[in-house]
């Protein structure tokens, strides 16, 4: 097998694009600024857990030729259980992503604004306009990308965005000259510094996300369509190599953000509140190049998440409701278009959809362990034959399920009592 066959960028790259959004950039920036390298072990665990779950989701998509939503629909047959399950998926994936889409577009707009800060005309237009023009522009770009209805074209766009943000954040990481000995210690020595428990859970929760499982299974089924009479073995192997390349790359990007923030702010009096502050504050520390690279990474992260979140929602809703997953069908397009438009309205008007976000946190808290449990059931079905889970895969999946329950409880607690 040629070397290039091992370096596969496919549907798993969409997952990396999904979890490296503005929310992850903010969480990673705050983790590094407040706790240095101490929480990197949690990120390492999150990446490993994501690889375990996403490999199962991709295997279901390749072997069955269906998305995760379709597989779950066939599992949940109880007349009372199915409406309840559909309601949770609708709340967490569709309504939740509508709220978070505003954050995706806002994050992309912050990156674009930082890049255009030295262009007087653009800066003046943005400052004198009542709406966030960058957010509208990014939303229109997301619509243009998805409207093509061509999976391979969308995948190529997202691969480019992931590689662009990887280059930007990793170069910033090198420029920031991190303490490599502290970095390695943070990766292999689990510890929770005082006040770091919620940040640790947030770092894991922004990486292990339920809607990415729907996105991956459906994308894998389209990337490697099932041909009658042919063994899915080669496609399963390709999907696994894709996971082994793309998910760790996404984790490496998050590690770079944590480390950059740790290098610039940990142990100092200066503080940051988000990724945009980090981008602006890098200038006096590491020069203008680092500022522009961080802003470019934030822009790419926002744009990629603005495409993947609506796409995942359309796949999930189509699957659980039994609709066609054809990317050019009107229901499929209406789903992602609605989410993007809601996000554009929220971001362009500067509205913080607090109620929707709290609602989405509760729904996600319920959905993550639920989807993990159903994923384990789906990947052990006899229909998968030799591609069903092994004992070790079930053991790893069970461990992730336990963590998912903890993450779910944390999300619900924060939304209902701390929020």
TrEMBL record:
Membrane topology classification: Multi-pass membrane protein
A Pfam family per the record: Nramp
Localization (cell): Membrane
Main location: membrane
A Gene Ontology cellular-component term: plasma membrane
Signal peptide: none
GO molecular function terms listed in the Swiss-Prot or TrEMBL record: cadmium ion transmembrane transporter activity; manganese ion transmembrane transporter activity; symporter activity
Entry keyword set: Membrane, Symport, Transmembrane, Transmembrane helix, Transport
Transmembrane segments: 12-33, 39-62, 83-100, 131-150, 157-176, 196-216, 249-272, 292-322, 334-351, 357-380, 392-416
Domain of life: Bacteria
GO biological process: iron ion transmembrane transport
Protein's recorded name: Manganese transporter
Lineage: Bacteria, Pseudomonadati, Pseudomonadota, Gammaproteobacteria, Alteromonadales
């Amino acid at each position: 097998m040629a070397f290039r066959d091992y370096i596969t960028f496919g549907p798993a790259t969409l997952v990396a694009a999904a979890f490296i959004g503005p929310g992850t950039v903010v969480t990673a920036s705050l983790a590094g600024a407040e706790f240095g390298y101490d929480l990197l072990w949690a990120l390492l665990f999150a990446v490993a857990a994501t690889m375990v779950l996403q490999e199962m989701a991709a295997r279901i998509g390749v072997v069955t030729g269906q998305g995760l939503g379709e597989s779950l629909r066939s599992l949940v047959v109880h007349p009372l259980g199915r409406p309840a399950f559909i309601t949770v998926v609708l709340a967490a994936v569709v309504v939740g992503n509508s709220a978070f889409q505003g954050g995706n577009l806002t994050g992309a707009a912050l990156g674009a604004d930082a890049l255009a800060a030295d262009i007087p005309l653009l800066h003046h237009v943005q400052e004198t306009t009542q709406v966030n023009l960058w957010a509208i522009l990014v939303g229109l770009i997301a619509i243009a990308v998805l409207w093509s209805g061509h999976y391979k074209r969308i995948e190529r766009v997202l691969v480019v965005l992931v590689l662009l943000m990887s280059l930007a954040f990793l170069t910033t990481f090198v420029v920031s000259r991190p303490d490599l000995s502290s970095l390695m210690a943070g990766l292999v020595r689990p510890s929770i510094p005082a006040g770091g428990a919620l940040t640790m859970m947030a770092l894991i929760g922004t990486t292990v996300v339920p809607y990415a499982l729907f996105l991956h299974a459906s994308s894998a089924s389209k990337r490697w369509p099932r041909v009658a009479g042919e063994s899915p073995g080669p496609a399963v192997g390709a999907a696994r190599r894709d996971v082994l390349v793309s998910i760790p790359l996404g984790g490496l990007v998050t590690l770079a953000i944590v480390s950059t923030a740790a290098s610039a702010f940990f142990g100092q009096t200066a503080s940051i509140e988000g990724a945009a502050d980090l981008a602006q504050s890098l200038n006096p520390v590491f020069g203008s190049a680092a500022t522009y690279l961080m802003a470019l990474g934030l822009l790419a992260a926002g744009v990629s998440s603005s495409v993947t979140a609506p796409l995942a929602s359309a796949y999930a809703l189509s699957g659980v409701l039994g609709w066609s997953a054809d990317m050019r069908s009107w229901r499929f397009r209406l789903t992602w278009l609605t989410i993007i438009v809601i996000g554009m309205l929220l971001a362009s008007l500067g509205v913080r959809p607090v109620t929707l976000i709290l609602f989405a946190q509760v729904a996600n808290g319920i959905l993550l362990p639920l989807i993990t449990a159903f994923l384990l059931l789906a990947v052990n079905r006899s229909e998968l034959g030799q591609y069903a889970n092994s004992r070790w895969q079930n053991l790893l999946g069970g461990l992730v399920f336990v963590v998912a329950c903890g993450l779910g409880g944390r999300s619900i607690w924060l939304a209902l009592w701390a929020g």
